Amino acid sequence: MMHPIGSPSNLNFPNEVINLVLKPPIVTKMHGRPKNTRIESTGEDSVK
Fold first, then answer.
1. Cα–Cα distance between 35 and 48 in angstroms, integer?
2. Which residue of 1, 14, 19, 38 has the smallest Cβ count within 10 Å?
3. Chain centroid to CA 26: how far?
4. Where is the region Disordered (predicted)?
5. What 3 state SS string does the chain have?
């Protein structure tokens, strides 16, 4: 069951939430070509 909350303009937020600064997550991009992570078949021999 869902209860209506009304108009978003009528909601009250604390000042801590209003003044909160959100930053994107820190990610590192892998350089070069991605490694081959293919899963071998049951009857396939591993050759290296």
1. 14
2. 1
3. 12
4. 29-48
5. CCCCCCCHHHCCCCHHHHCCCCCCCCCCCCCCCCCCCCCCCCCCCCCC
Query: Six-digit token pair at 33?
Result: 């070509």
**Cα 29 from chain centre:** 15
Q: Hey, what long-range contacts does 41-44 have (CB within 8 A, 24 or more apart)?
A: none
- Token code pair at residue 26: 């820190």
**One-letter amino acid for residue 7 of the chain:** S
What local confidence, expressed as pLDDT, does residue 11 receive? 83
Overall average pLDDT of the 25-47 stretch = 79
Residue 47's closest CA among 14, 38, 4?
Answer: 38
